[in-house]
Amino acid sequence: MRISVPATSANLGPGFDCLGIALNLKNQVIIRPSKFHSVSLKGEGSNNPALKDNNMFISIFNDFYYNLTQKKRHFRFEFFNEIPLSRGLGSSSAVIVSAIASAYAIEGIKVEKARLLNLSLAYESHPDNITPAVMGGFNVASVHENEVKFITKSIPKTLKAVVVIPNRPISTTLSRKTLPYKYSKEDTIFNISHSSLLTAAFMSENWDMLKYASADVVHQQFRMKHMPELFEVQKTALKNGALMSTLSGSGSTFFSIAYSEDSQKLELALKEKFPHFRVMSVDFDNNGVKIEI
Ligand SMILES: Nc1ncnc2c1ncn2[C@@H]1O[C@H](COP(=O)(O)OP(=O)(O)O)[C@@H](O)[C@H]1O
Ligand SMILES: N[C@@H](CCOP(=O)(O)O)C(=O)O
């Protein structure tokens, strides 16, 4: 059985914990029953010993597999990872979603995407990464009475993402602890109105509105001040054709959207100015998690 799951960029500026989008940058895993437990890792994280000895995918998969079957079996796991760890591209959500989906799929049990999403919520309480990881596309997601309520919109091929990935990892859990405990009424109104405008812009494909609607005052400035070069990344992106440019999740990646015909110019400008960062143009993903038996 093979399963693939996309990277995700959460928040998109003002939509803290509720907006997210899926990228065609994927983790894949092949799982086969085996006499012994074994793991092979290629790509991102392959030189990280924790991923061999204490792998979050394997522990979530084993828990779900045991709860579903009451059996303990051995498997061979072959991981091919494209999503960098702890860079704000939803690596943990990708692991959670794909581990739960695999435990069901390997037993031939069908699980609806909405159910998979709600099972994933037990491991990540904010739904802005897990929803696009499951569904693909742009997503607005809220937790209402312990259930994720969401609306998905496909992204047309005329748009591309350009990501700038610094070498520095940032743990989402730690980064959330550095945010203010309280916000003023003005800042709250600012973010609610911008997040609503941004959602309407995606839904109506009014791409020229993204630049204004993607402004945020609740999290980016507090996170970016620990890596001030990111302010320069944002300025350079907006000067070179980005329709919007925001911190991806909790960082350290910076995420921009451009018309496909402008994305190469944007990628080159960012590569030239920030040669020490990884810069890539990436298509959007409109499928979400995919399972092949
Ligand atoms: N491919 C992977 N395999 C196993 N665990 C992973 C993988 N990718 C991420 N993780 C786990 O998720 C953690 C990163 O989560 P987090 O700080 O939320 O970063 P991100 O912003 O990438 O989601 C890692 O420290 C690791 O425990
Ligand atoms: N809304 C969350 C999103 C975290 O995304 P990640 O990709 O950094 O895990 C936050 O801003 O903390």
Automatic annotation (TrEMBL):
<protein>
    <recommendedName>
        <fullName>Homoserine kinase</fullName>
        <ecNumber>2.7.1.39</ecNumber>
    </recommendedName>
</protein>
<feature type="domain" description="GHMP kinase N-terminal">
    <location>
        <begin position="69"/>
        <end position="137"/>
    </location>
</feature>
<keyword id="KW-0418">Kinase</keyword>
<dbReference type="GO" id="GO:0004413">
    <property type="term" value="F:homoserine kinase activity"/>
</dbReference>
<dbReference type="InterPro" id="IPR013750">
    <property type="entry name" value="GHMP_kinase_C_dom"/>
</dbReference>
<dbReference type="InterPro" id="IPR014721">
    <property type="entry name" value="Ribsml_uS5_D2-typ_fold_subgr"/>
</dbReference>
<dbReference type="GO" id="GO:0009088">
    <property type="term" value="P:threonine biosynthetic process"/>
</dbReference>
<dbReference type="InterPro" id="IPR000870">
    <property type="entry name" value="Homoserine_kinase"/>
</dbReference>
<feature type="binding site">
    <location>
        <begin position="84"/>
        <end position="94"/>
    </location>
    <ligand>
        <name>ATP</name>
    </ligand>
</feature>
<dbReference type="GO" id="GO:0005737">
    <property type="term" value="C:cytoplasm"/>
</dbReference>
<feature type="domain" description="GHMP kinase C-terminal">
    <location>
        <begin position="202"/>
        <end position="275"/>
    </location>
</feature>
<keyword id="KW-0028">Amino-acid biosynthesis</keyword>
<dbReference type="InterPro" id="IPR006203">
    <property type="entry name" value="GHMP_knse_ATP-bd_CS"/>
</dbReference>
<comment type="similarity">
    <text>Belongs to the GHMP kinase family. Homoserine kinase subfamily.</text>
</comment>
<dbReference type="Pfam" id="PF08544">
    <property type="entry name" value="GHMP_kinases_C"/>
</dbReference>
<comment type="pathway">
    <text>Amino-acid biosynthesis; L-threonine biosynthesis; L-threonine from L-aspartate: step 4/5.</text>
</comment>
<dbReference type="GO" id="GO:0005524">
    <property type="term" value="F:ATP binding"/>
</dbReference>
<keyword id="KW-0547">Nucleotide-binding</keyword>
<keyword id="KW-0067">ATP-binding</keyword>
<comment type="function">
    <text>Catalyzes the ATP-dependent phosphorylation of L-homoserine to L-homoserine phosphate.</text>
</comment>
<dbReference type="InterPro" id="IPR006204">
    <property type="entry name" value="GHMP_kinase_N_dom"/>
</dbReference>
<keyword id="KW-0808">Transferase</keyword>
<dbReference type="Pfam" id="PF00288">
    <property type="entry name" value="GHMP_kinases_N"/>
</dbReference>
<keyword id="KW-0791">Threonine biosynthesis</keyword>
<dbReference type="InterPro" id="IPR036554">
    <property type="entry name" value="GHMP_kinase_C_sf"/>
</dbReference>
<keyword id="KW-0963">Cytoplasm</keyword>
<dbReference type="InterPro" id="IPR020568">
    <property type="entry name" value="Ribosomal_Su5_D2-typ_SF"/>
</dbReference>
